[in-house]
Design a protein that fits this description.
With 315 residues, the chain is mainly beta. It is built from one helix and 19 strands. Strands 12, 13, 14, 15, 16, 17, 18 and 19 form an eight-stranded mixed β-sheet that branches. It has a seven-stranded antiparallel β-sheet with strand order 1-5-4-11-10-7-8, with no helix packed on it. It has a four-stranded antiparallel β-sheet with strand order 3-2-6-9, with no helix packed on it. Strand 10 and strand 11 form a beta hairpin. The radius of gyration is 25 Å and the shape is elongated. The N and C termini lie far apart (61 Å). The relative contact order is 0.13.
Length: 315
């Protein structure tokens, strides 16, 4: 059974709770979605059989090989006469168990079965490995179609629908019900290395001054901020190069086992291999490059405004 984490069940009158219990059977039937004799589902439909609020919309994708059924990600739904919405959130991507193949640039229609049309439909696309968001879009609610121009690789896709309902206490007299489903997709071809770094946002003196090339801050974003970097392929190494045009110093750090994410600066006891030097005091350009298991390289210092120069104070 799909793992579930409850994030908020708003207060409901006893009469509504009874109504919900009676209508659970209807929700279960709804959860099965429309059946097609000419297209077997491409993924497993993996939602709980006893969702507590009726009737939740069902979403799926149209694919040349058949329907791609989604796994529930989240819902917040208002039951008539209840004080507030009932909300449930599921473990992220836990129900995505297959990655049907699709061609880059091929439109994928989104199908929605519900009592009324949604007012808004959104989509978010993440890499399967590293969980990097690569696209987000708003779709037309009447005939939603995914226009995806994705590089080769495996992807997680989340589709979110919103349905308005009346609420006199809201500023505009209405609020939104929301249901989200998750899917998997595969674009064939050689996967290129992509990544991104999130950093803290601390002001002050951001220059990096090192007493020696062994200083831990040589791999920091700057003198005040720290960074966490994620990638779509396991990283086996990280290279640091300091260069002033006439002198060059190179240091290579190894990750064992390879990792999809790491923090910067690296720990002080992180082993490395060095070449070049010794370096005289002065200003040096700095380049930090992530190296994947299969040899792809990505310059980390071009992301998140990493400081690209350092000052060496001591020899």
């Amino acid at each position: 059974m799909t793992s579930v984490r409850r994030i908020g069940v708003d207060r409901m009158p006893r009469v509504v709770k009874v109504l919900v219990a009676v209508l659970v059977v209807g929700v279960t039937a709804m959860g099965c979605g429309p059946e097609r004799e000419d297209a077997a589902p491409a993924t497993t439909r993996a939602w709980p059989a006893n969702w507590p609020v009726p009737p939740l919309p069902v979403m799926w994708l149209e694919h040349p090989s058949g329907s791609i059924w989604g796994s529930p990600s989240r819902y917040c739904w208002h039951v008539e006469d209840a004080a507030d919405r009932v909300c449930e959130e599921f473990v992220i991507w836990s129900g995505v168990d297959a990655f049907p193949e699709t061609k880059a640039g091929r439109p994928i229609p989104v199908r929605i079965e519900s009592e009324t049309k949604p007012e808004k439909v959104f989509a978010q696309v993440y890499t399967r490995h590293g969980d990097l968001r690569v696209d987000s879009m708003q779709l037309g609610p009447n005939y939603p179609v995914l226009e995806l121009d994705l590089d080769p690789g495996d992807y997680h896709l989340r589709v979110i629908g919103q349905w308005p309902y009346s609420d006199a206490s809201a500023p505009l007299g209405r609020r939104y019900n929301e249901v989200a489903y998750e899917f998997g997709l595969h674009v064939p071809g050689a996967v290129k290395l992509i990544g991104g770094c999130d950093t803290t946002d601390i002001g002050g003196d951001l220059s990096i001054v090192l007493r020696s090339p062994d200083d831990r801050m040589r791999t920091a974003k700057d003198s005040a901020n720290r960074a966490g970097c994620r990638f779509n392929k396991p990283i086996a190494g990280l290279s640091l190069t300091l260069d002033n045009g006439t002198q060059r110093y190179t240091e290579v750090f190894r990750f064992d086992p390879p990792t999809l994410r790491f923090g910067l600066p690296l720990p002080e006891d992180f082993g490395s291999e060095t070449s070049g030097g010794p370096l005289p005091p002065g200003v040096y350009s700095r380049r930090i490059v992530a190296i994947s298991e299969d040899g792809d390289e990505l310059d980390v210092t071009t992301s998140a405004e990493f400081l690209q120069t350092i000052t060496l104070a001591g020899g």
